[in-house]
Task: inverse folding
């Protein structure tokens, strides 16, 4: 059962990590009281055509002996609206949701709750106690991502984890969940949040992004390489993002052929994890016979350049990251970056939001201002 509890903070809700995360139209979430959601776990095929909340509407209607038309008349809404909600094509506005719940003798929280456990986008494990996170939803699954520390302060968070529960700090609108090593994803997340949409962009390597896409912890992943091609076991729809050069960034003021020692294995190099596209490019560019190159491993392109600037080392990264940090850059390869959308989510409104964001002129201008991007065909579908 799902119960609603009165509280001092109307926008705050508590969700067990291993229990349901409420799924509401953003307007419904803004008007509901505190929710403590405690629902029995249900085994459910991912391919079911209806979310559990929509199945609950139909179940309660049929249990009351109402036709769709009769329920619509009692709630003061159209029969078409009831049909659309039960078919999974529509989530009602707050007034219609309250009216439907009242007509069925229940509450909105009980009628529109769904079931999944919250897991971290990158690892697939429950977020740890004390974590402050961004919160999203992919299908029926609630997913989280750590909140970073911004250059000038603390990044905005959606929720925190306390005693195994995800505690939201306010309404969390639906939106796309994306992963990949393109720094521009953070720009896209910011633009969508400015529009009042939810969005979560997670900085991970191409390999980690593909793992998350396979496990359906993200709607889409950014993958790059000289000629990226989806694996046979993953059905995706591809969209163009950018072309940029991958290579080595050096400390500011580095003179001469500063990159040669790095490619010859004569000096430590700041590197990425083995699954990263830039790391594979670095391996291909090493002088023949050179074994593993020592050096620290970092999580993102920008982390690599920051480490190079601070330590005086050479770093494996992409040209836009080097330009953003004022570091010299030596190219190794040119890569295409693409957004791969899991085919089953192509019609998801969250994905439509992401694709619309790619064509937003503010997104393009922000990347152009950084430099190092070839944005020809940005947002176009790859045949």
Result:
């Amino acid at each position: 059962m799902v119960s609603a509890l009165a509280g001092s903070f109307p926008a705050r809700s508590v969700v067990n990590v291993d229990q349901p995360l409420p799924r509401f139209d953003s307007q419904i979430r803004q008007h509901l009281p505190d929710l403590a959601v405690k629902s029995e776990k249900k085994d459910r095929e991912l391919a079911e055509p209806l979310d559990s909340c929509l199945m609950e509407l139909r179940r309660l209607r049929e249990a009351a002996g109402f036709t769709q038309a009769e329920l619509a008349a009692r709630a003061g809404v159209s029969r078409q609206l009831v049909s659309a909600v039960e078919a999974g094509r529509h989530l009602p506005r707050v007034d219609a949701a309250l009216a439907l719940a009242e007509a069925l003798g229940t509450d909105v929280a009980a009628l529109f709750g769904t079931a999944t456990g919250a897991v971290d986008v990158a690892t697939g494990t429950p977020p740890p106690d004390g974590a402050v996170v961004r919160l999203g939803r992919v299908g029926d699954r609630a997913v989280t991502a750590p909140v970073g520390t911004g250059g000038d302060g603390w990044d905005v968070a959606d929720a925190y984890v306390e005693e195994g529960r995800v505690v939201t700090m306010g309404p969390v609108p639906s939106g796309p969940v994306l992963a990949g090593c393109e720094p521009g994803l953070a720009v896209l997340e910011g633009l969508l949040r400015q529009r009042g949409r939810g969005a979560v962009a997670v900085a991970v390597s191409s390999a980690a992004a593909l793992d998350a896409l396979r496990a359906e912890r993200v709607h889409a992943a950014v993958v790059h390489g000289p000629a990226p091609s989806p694996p046979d076991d993953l059905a995706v729809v591809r969209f163009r993002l950018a072309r940029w050069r991958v290579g080595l960034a050096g400390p500011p003021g580095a003179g001469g052929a500063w990159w040669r020692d790095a490619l010859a294995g004569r000096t430590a190099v700041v590197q990425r994890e083995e699954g990263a596209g830039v790391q594979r490019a670095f391996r291909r560019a090493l002088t023949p016979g050179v074994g593993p190159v020592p050096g620290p491993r970092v999580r993102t392109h920008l982390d690599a350049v920051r480490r190079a600037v601070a330590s005086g080392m050479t770093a494996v990264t992409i040209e836009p990251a080097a330009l953003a940090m004022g570091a010299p850059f030596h190219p190794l390869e040119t890569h295409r970056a693409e957004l791969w959308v899991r085919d089953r989510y192509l019609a998801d409104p969250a994905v439509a939001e992401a694709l619309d964001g790619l064509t937003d002129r503010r997104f393009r201008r922000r990347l152009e201002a950084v430099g190092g991007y070839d944005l020809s065909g940005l947002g176009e579908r790859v045949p």
